[in-house]
Amino acid sequence: MVRYGIVGCGHIAKKHVDAIVATEGAELAAVCDTDPARIAPFVKEGIRGYTDLEQMLKDGAVDVVSICTPSGLHAELAVRAAKAGKHVVVEKPMAMNLDEADRMIAACEKNGVLMTVVHPNRFRPAVMELKRRMEEGAFGTIGHANATVRWNRNQAYYDQAPWRGTRAMDGGVLMNQAIHNLDLLLWLLGEVEEVASYQATRIRRIEAEDTSVSVLRFKSGALGVIEAAVTVYPRNLEESLAIFGEKGTAVIGGPTANWIKTWRFADLTEEESRATIARVEKDPYGVPGHRCIIEDMTEAVRTGRRPKITGEDGRRALELAVACNRAAAFGRPVRLDSLR
């Protein structure tokens, strides 16, 4: 049995609890938060509650620590967990800068523990179909790709906690809301060579950006656009991922990117394309992404293999976000190799 301890009992912790409970061979052993009131709903028979992380890290019944705190705390907590010999599951973004990410990766390597970063959108049925077609070479030469997040996070969302919307603890729309889409672009199209970006804080009363538009050039030569905003009225409008190639066009969309909107390939008949769309529509959400992450980590801990989504994967998405932020701040394109 792989036993989990959760640090940070806010909103996202519930997804981790549900995922652990649903995973064969996993169990929730402990929770930790500085606020006892947040711990109370999770403490049941066999589940211990801690207000001091050091005490939970000394708990021999905890094998893996799931970090569900505000993003600015991820790095410190991950390093402490690794030094205590605990494997690490860390929410997105894994850190707020590349130095923090490197410290996390190094600490896990030095202490012989595994780390996975929560990028659950890879496990959506539509996205997995898209990945399969990419691996089959069905697009031919890729011309360009678009990732769009047109969502609403109203002022009340930011006002409910003082860390929200800050650069140090939240990171803005690109780091917080769109980081999954950056991960998907990298997973599907490979490394990015250079970015140019504009960012603004147009509507929300926050420190970080609420709107970001970036243009990418991939190492393959393909181009890309990332549009991300939390200012769309009155609710979430669209999350989409589109890839345009020599022999194929695919668009995944909806309020969240769970539905295939366009599926055209030179090697598929209309009937075959419609069949794929219909198959995804029967179960567009599939197995919850957090459950997929926990199932994978549980197996990785049992067998000693690397998780499907590694710390290095999380770092690549973070690196792209950092490059976009710097390009916007500098007012000129930024090459990603300049960050290394």
TrEMBL record:
Residues 128-250 form the GFO/IDH/MocA-like oxidoreductase domain. One of its GO terms (molecular function) is nucleotide binding. Transmembrane segments: none annotated. Signal peptide: none annotated. Residues 2-118 form the Gfo/Idh/MocA-like oxidoreductase N-terminal domain. It holds the Pfam family GFO_IDH_MocA. It comes from the Bacteria. SUPFAM superfamilies: Glyceraldehyde-3-phosphate dehydrogenase-like, C-terminal domain, NAD(P)-binding Rossmann-fold domains. This is Predicted dehydrogenase. It comes from Planifilum fulgidum.
